[in-house]
Amino acid sequence: MELKEDLKEAKERMAAWWDHELIDRPAISYYFPKRSGSIGGYLDAIIQDWTLAQNLDDIEMSLNGFEKRAKKTYYGGEAIPSFLPNYGPGIVAAVFGVIPKFESETMWFSRPTKPEDIIQLLEGMKLNQDNEWYARLLRITTQGSERAAEMGYQFSITDLGGVLDILSSFLGPTNLILTMKRQPQIIDTCRQIILEKLLQIYDDLYAIIKKNCNGFNAWLNVWCPKSWYPVQCDFIAMLNPKWFKRFALPDLIAQIEHMDYAIHHMDGPYQIPFLDDFLAIDQLTGIQWVPGAGRHPQGSDDWMPIYKKIQKAGKNVVMESLPENTPHLYKHLDPKGLYVRVGFSSEISANFYLPSFMGGQEGELIQRALNWVKQNNTSSFDKERLSEFLKHAKLELEPKIERQLFKEINNCLREKLFFT
Fold first, then answer.
1. Which is nearest to 271 in space by CA: 314, 227, 232?
2. Which of 3, 147, 242, 265 can pair with 81 through a Cys bridge, CB separation 3.0 to 4.6 Å?
3. Rounded to an integer, what is the distance from CA 53 to the centroid of its chain?
């Protein structure tokens, strides 16, 4: 099953990207459905659904669904087909004894434990075949990566979670903070236990995937020829700078130094105060900045100072982008250290917005139309107005391109995009 014709070239560009280098052009990852109108198809193909979380051992059913969707998806640029065994963020908590619960389209991890009991509970966890979730992860990764290798796509390591995030599944946020203050030695012992087991699980799963697949991937979906992981700790949003350095940063550094490359998943505005600490880690390859719900999306000009600061420190930037903003990013950031992932509704839409180095129009036709609308003080843009614009611009387009252009212009007008 060939899902991507230029897979070899894409992997060569990604190998260079990890080393902050360029071969022939910048790296970019984009997708669109091969058949217009099936936008959900490619979204499901790149954002793995919850089939496996609801059917814990049915890897075959989950892979069947992925392959069906992937066949309907065009993987452009450095988009590399990859299956994520999705058990939710932080499945290592289940390896330590949490019974995960699937609810509201995500997996929840909670096993309330008293601080005086937590060390004994964590120490009692053994990584062997008697451990239900450890055995399951080994089995699923083996079966899945063998199938992926046979069918010609990548198998990603599951979402392991962060050290304090896993510990919070047992103590809860309030008790975790209070124990840091009252009995920090308990937290230190727990961190040591979790980190050791977390890295062992990573190594075990990495060895399986490395044996069966050419390269390595994770939930962030950035292919790498060597070992890497999107390290994270969502809990640090609740810590002051002193406690961040005391209880979180050492474990993040240990994880980063354990692998060939690493991206830090910086989630939410409360992690911004720690950015300098992340940038000071020599072995850290790059950062993915996620603004959080209710804020301007990734790629917005509001976050440009953050992106530029990251690149100035010699780190790569990973982000998702709205289609119309993608060319702007490659013009205003160093393309050598940039990896943008973007989804389009169709091939025509992709051609409208892709950067010129991918043969795209960089949104120029859309902008011309929007400028014409503004100059003519048009309150709406109907089919008659489209005809007037095309006549003014001396353009003759195929009917399907006209239809997509009409849709894109109205989307931009509705969202008030492109106007300054």
1. 232
2. 3
3. 18
Neighbours of 400 (CB within 10 A): 12
Domain 7-362 falls in which CATH fold? TIM Barrel (3.20.20)
Give tens-digit pLDDT for 334-380.
Answer: 999 999 999 999 999 999 999 999 999 999 999 999 999 989 887 67
- Quickly tell me which residue has 């051992």 as its tokens: 57
Beta carbons of 233 and 162 less than 8 angstroms apart: yes
Residue pair 36/345 in contact by the 8 Å Cβ criterion: yes
All structural domains of the chain with their residue ranges: 7-362, 365-420
Tell which residue, 50, 90, 287, has the closest CA to residue 170.
Answer: 90
Q: For the CA atoms of the chain, what is the radius of gyration?
A: 23
Provide the total of helices (H) and of strands (E) in the chain, helices listed first. 18, 11
Q: Are 352 and 405 in contact (CB under 8 A)?
A: yes
The answer to whether residue 47 scores a pLDDT higher than 70 is no
Residue 126: the pLDDT is 97
Calpha distance 18→22 (Å, rounded):
10
The pLDDT of residue 420: 43
Instruction: Return the closest-CA partner of residue 161 out of 194, 131, 185, 192.
Output: 194
Sign of CA dihedral 68, 76, 149, 230: negative
Cα 19 to Cα 13: distance, rounded to the nearest angstrom? 10
pLDDT for position 418: 56
Q: Are 41 and 33 in contact (CB under 8 A)?
A: yes
* CA distances for 327 relative to 245, 295, 310, 313, angstroms: 37, 21, 19, 23
